Amino acid sequence: MTQRKKEEVITFKVDERLAEAMSGVQNRSAFIRDAILAALGNTCPVCRGTGILSVSQKNHWEEFTQHHHVEQCDECQEEHLVCDHEIMTH
Asked: In the chain, where are the structural domains located?
């Protein structure tokens, strides 16, 4: 017999504007779950979306940036990380 994992209920408050915007959504729970999973998939893997590095994370970042830099993409204009080692070997 397989056991189902127990689902956890998480609630949160929304302002009137957001409640009105979501009033036409058929399955709000599924919509919110999908939106949260999409947002979590697009968060910084280092700070996990907080925008703040701990002292230890900052130290690791400083070490990382010795051989990497941030550069703007010519095609999409978005910032991305570039390994300096790859540039030297091309």
From this structure: 16-89
